[in-house]
Amino acid sequence: MKDISQIMRQAQQMQAKINEAQKKLEAMEVEGTAGGGMVKLRISGKNALLGISIDPSLMVADEREILEDLIKAAHDDARRKLETAQNDEMKGLSGGLGILPGFKMPF
Asked: Using CA atoms, how far apart are residues 97 and 94, in angstroms rounded to an integer?
């Protein structure tokens, strides 16, 4: 059995790594696109909308629904990319924890 002080040191090191990873995840920015790049949007690691770019050719009153659908699709694309990037970032951190497969980290 490990010495309690050694376990506490490991826990503190792990907490420091978790805090560092959370800051890195929050600082992430990803871009989602739809319509062949006609709609682009950027979101932060906190899932906040940072910017949106819409091709002027989509600014037609009769095609409002198409534009709305493209914005939703670009947001979904960005969210998927963000989730993938965050999962990849956390893989290295959770690798040494012995976490059961399928367990999601709470952040």
From this structure: 5
Is the pLDDT score of 19 beyond 90? no
CA-derived radius of gyration, the chain: 20
> With 90 as the cut, is the pLDDT of residue 104 above it?
no
At residue 10, φ and ψ (nearest 5 deg) are: -65, -40
Judge contact between 78 and 32, C-beta under 8 A: yes
Q: Phi then psi for 53, rounded to 5 degrees?
A: -130, 125
pTM of the model: 0.70
Residue 63 pLDDT grade (very low, low, confident, very high; cuts 50, 70, 90): confident
What's the CA gap between 12 and 57, in Å, rounded? 54
Q: What is the DSSP letter of 52?
A: E
DSSP string, 21-51: HHHHHHH-EEEEEETTTTEEEEEETT--EEE
